[in-house]
Amino acid sequence: MTVLNGRQIAEEKLDGWVYVPGGLQTRIRTGDFATGLKIVNAIGEVAERMNHHPDLTLRYTEVDVRLTSHDARGVTQRDIRLARAVSSIVSGAGVRMESASVSRLEWALDSPAYTSVRPFWAAIMAMETPEGQEDLVDPADVHPAIWFQESGSEEPRQRWHPDIWLEPAQVQPRIDAAVAAGGTLVSDAEAPAFWVLADPEGNRVCLCTWQDRQG
């Protein structure tokens, strides 16, 4: 199966879904646990028929869904078809799905010699490095991935920074909220791929989207 890039996924016009690293995600607002359980069971039946299975998180008033083709290491047409099926189930249940509150967290470690510290983090986090990549990933896809970025050695410096992936339409509201909370927009030079912000003490974070990227 061919892995789809962000632009190809956007062309599918999947309302309520957001493309974040390696997968499609949505949040179903169920209102109560029983409704959520019924929806999870309905998704499970469809997934079995399609022989393609999502990651589901059932909470009291919501269900989070993540779709990815693990064998292809990305989003394929199998995920698009299942996303449409999930959307149909949600519509039939009379509840709503949304992506405005959905995000995916990654951690970046800035280091002048990251190859020497990566084995430590792989061991302590019980993570793996996929073939052909340098990132560390959780085999269960529960904990955030860790990637490494070469930096200078000048002190003081920030070692860790979070990358928050989200729907492109949600970037400006997040920036506005962060600035209103005392933060600053450090750089938008790489927008719309990512924006760099800092809290009042100068700790930096990146808001990231699929836009202007190959994948």
TrEMBL record:
UniProt entry tagged with the keyword Magnesium: no
Keyword Lyase: yes
Superkingdom in the source lineage: Bacteria
Pfam families: Glyoxalase_6 (PF18029), Pterin_4a (PF01329)
Gene3D superfamilies: 2,3-Dihydroxybiphenyl 1,2-Dioxygenase, domain 1 (3.10.180.10), Transcriptional coactivator/pterin dehydratase (3.30.1360.20)
Uppermost EC category: lyase
EC number(s) from the headed UniProt entry: 4.2.1.96
Catalytic activity: (4aS,6R)-4a-hydroxy-L-erythro-5,6,7,8-tetrahydrobiopterin = (6R)-L-erythro-6,7-dihydrobiopterin + H2O
Record's keyword terms, sorted: Lyase
A Gene Ontology molecular function term of the record: 4-alpha-hydroxytetrahydrobiopterin dehydratase activity
Domain Glyoxalase-like: 108-208
An example Gene Ontology biological process: tetrahydrobiopterin biosynthetic process
Family: Belongs to the pterin-4-alpha-carbinolamine dehydratase family.
Name assigned to this protein: Putative pterin-4-alpha-carbinolamine dehydratase
Provenance organism: Paractinoplanes atraurantiacus
